[in-house]
């Protein structure tokens, strides 16, 4: 009989050591930790049919999915924690509890520039090791948008036996050249910050905040549709500022620039520039075709029932990229389009539509329902 | 009888002083020079019906339109210099012969940060003064794309009596918030270059090349459609470089980044960072509604027969913006769509389509042809 894995208390951050990790490109990271949270009780067989849904966060997201997907995860919500055991890790390379550039190297100093480049596959492999470390050899589904969607797609190709269904949202089968270009512009904004110190700024008492904020401002404009931003801000001046004065003054701003400054500043308070560079680079390297005979062969080889979701106004991952996945993937469960002026971020913002999409996905992925017996949480209690 | 204006030799750069210039926002620039070129002989009345077509260049363009619109300007081409006298100035604030931030202030040093902020209207007013200085009170048409389109639209509202027709290409009636955001990201990239010195780098022996190149890389991604860039570069590595190595190395690039580096570097060799900031800021301030009762009232007040041209895949000035102009402008001559994967730059690159569009525009603008008598060039000769 299989042991029921011991899981983190409801909604609380916990950490799991997965040992040394070898990257796809051949570097290694010693003594890796993966942080995660869990909502809802476990039910079923850790090695077979069970009620685990793994959610994959986006670039600067984290394991606290009940925050950033608050309308969608919880009792009675689409990802109903009375029915599903939701597990969300912090990605390898990030800075919210999992090992990343700001974590201590075995020598005690931060990894910094010694932290290797990661691919999306590396993020998935680390998560796979994490789930195995917990005692799982199977989950019901993996769901994710943007960088989370890239990871979900790679999950379905790296470990098809590990999941019963996948929901791939607002992403492509590989980085497009445009994405690589605009993402590299963000990396460059950080690299050009004098406080970046080649990635080893942790030894200094100042972080490359300006560079990270500049990167985020650019990124934000790819996350939001131009019509939505224009409807909100147009050419309005920021209150008490005059962007039309006789001389250009950076502190006399249009409202949209004040908004973008806020988005940039806010990120510097919660995110590490090293992680931003590492994970952005992982997105540059996203390519499910690598080593699998090309993009369409890779997609065609997929056996996991996969739902593909896109946003009609997404300029970062345009809808034709999700159509491309849908047309070529080996086992298409369904396709859905979020209709919104918001652009890429609609998968985070359009809760009503996402609610219906995720409910539909789970219904399609378990058409006859799940009959899994009692629900456990760790070794402490069961319902 | 009106004197026939003396014009620059065919295709050669010439300079005209227009005196002191007061900007829309209330600053002044002493002793302004406007540089220009001319192709084709003049015919008609400098104060009435004549064969002058004024072409307006884009942000980093210049008066040498026979270079950047080489397929469209010349004998037998759409802008047939056997029939039309084509005049192209360098915009106020630019760095190709007209007065801009790198020009000498009356004190002998460069204007630098003392150069005022300009609006699109300022660019037009300076050109208006220039044409009057030459002796003209009327031209047949004004044509321009992107920043040139913004100027063309402002021409039709500031001096409707001065032109018989306008062709407004790949632009909007005002900056969108998204444009302001992405354009400000470019300005910020330059400002963050330590060699920018607040705009007064001319006194130093180093220019903010890194910042200007970074700005251009971002800009270029808004000029080109993502499908076109992706078809060319995809996730290819630059020859002899490996962007997938175990550690991220900025000199191990994807092909698209090498291409963008080239675009950035090339601009630093031909363009001044101060002019780039000044003209980008002018684009941020583009708003035909300002002081005219709002956008649609301003457009409705237009009396100049205007052709509006857009590109279906333009992400910088999306096609719905040209539809907006067309729906609201007081005297719509025609509308045309360039169909291209290239995006915004299609108005420069899709010569075949632009040829037909410009021929159509000129035919519509002079349906009965022009009967103007002999063609003059300066006071030297006539045909």
Automatic annotation (TrEMBL), chains A, B:
What is a single molecular function from GO for this protein?
homoserine O-acetyltransferase activity
| EC number annotated for this UniProt entry | 2.3.1.31
Query: Could you tell me where this protein is found in the cell?
Result: Cytoplasm
List the keywords (alphabetical). Acyltransferase, Amino-acid biosynthesis, Cytoplasm, Methionine biosynthesis, Transferase
Positions that bind substrate: 216, 345
Which residues are named in the active-site annotation?
146, 314, 344
Q: One GO BP annotation here?
A: homoserine metabolic process
Give the main location.
cytoplasm
Pathway listed for it is: Amino-acid biosynthesis; L-methionine biosynthesis via de novo pathway; O-acetyl-L-homoserine from L-homoserine: step 1/1
Q: Which GO terms describe its cellular component?
A: cytoplasm
Q: Does the keyword RNA-binding apply?
A: no
Keyword Amino-acid biosynthesis, does the record have it?
Answer: yes
Q: Where is the AB hydrolase-1 domain?
A: 52-348
The record's catalysed reaction(s) read: L-homoserine + acetyl-CoA = O-acetyl-L-homoserine + CoA
User: The organism sits in which domain of life?
Assistant: Bacteria
PANTHER family, A to Z: HOMOSERINE O-ACETYLTRANSFERASE
Which family does the record claim for this protein? Belongs to the AB hydrolase superfamily. MetX family.
Q: What does this protein do?
A: Transfers an acetyl group from acetyl-CoA to L-homoserine, forming acetyl-L-homoserine.
Q: How does it assemble?
A: Homodimer.
Put simply, this protein is called Homoserine O-acetyltransferase
The protein's gene is named: metX
């Amino acid at each position: 009989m299989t042991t029921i894995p011991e899981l983190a208390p409801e909604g609380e951050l916990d950490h799991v050591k997965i040992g040394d990790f070898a990257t796809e490109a051949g570097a290694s990271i010693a003594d890796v930790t993966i942080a995660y949270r869990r909502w809802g009780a476990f039910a079923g067989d850790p090695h077979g049919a069970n009620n685990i849904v793994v959610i994959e966060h986006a670039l600067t997201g984290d394991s606290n999915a009940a925050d950033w997907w608050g309308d969608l995860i919880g009792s009675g919500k689409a990802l109903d924690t009375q029915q599903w055991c939701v597990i969300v890790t912090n990605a390898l390379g990030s800075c919210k509890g999992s090992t990343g550039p700001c974590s201590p190297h075995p020598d005690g100093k931060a990894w910094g520039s010694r932290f290797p480049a990661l691919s999306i596959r590396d993020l998935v492999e680390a998560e796979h090791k994490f789930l195995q470390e917990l005692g799982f050899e199977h989950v019901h589904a993996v769901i994710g948008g943007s960088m989370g969607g890239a990871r979900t797609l790679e999950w379905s190709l790296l470990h098809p036996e590990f999941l019963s269904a996948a929901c791939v949202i607002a992403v492509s089968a590989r980085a497009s050249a445009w994405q690589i270009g605009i993402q590299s512009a963000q990396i460059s904004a950080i690299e050009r910050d004098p406080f970046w110190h080649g990635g080893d700024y942790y030894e200094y008492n100042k972080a490359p905040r300006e560079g990270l904020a500049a990167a985020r401002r650019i990124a934000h404009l790819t996350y939001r549709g131009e019509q939505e931003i224009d409807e909100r801000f147009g050419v309005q001046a920021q209150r008490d500022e005059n962007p039309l004065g006789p001389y250009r003054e950076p502190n006399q701003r249009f409202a949209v620039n004040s908004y973008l400054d806020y988005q940039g500043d806010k990120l510097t308070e919660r995110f590490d520039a090293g992680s931003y560079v590492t994970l952005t680079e992982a997105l540059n390297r996203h390519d499910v075709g690598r080593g699998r005979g090309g993009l369409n062969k890779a997609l065609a080889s997929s056996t996991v029932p996969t739902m593909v979701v896109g946003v009609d106004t997404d300029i970062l991952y345009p809808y034709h990229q999700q159509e491309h996945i849908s047309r070529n993937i080996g086992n298409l469960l369904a396709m859905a389009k979020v209709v919104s002026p918001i652009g890429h971020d609609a998968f985070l913002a359009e809760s009503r539509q996402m609610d219906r999409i995720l409910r539909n996905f789970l219904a399609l992925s378990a058409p006859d329902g799940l009959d899994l017996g009692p629900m456990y949480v760790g070794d402490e209690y069961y319902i």
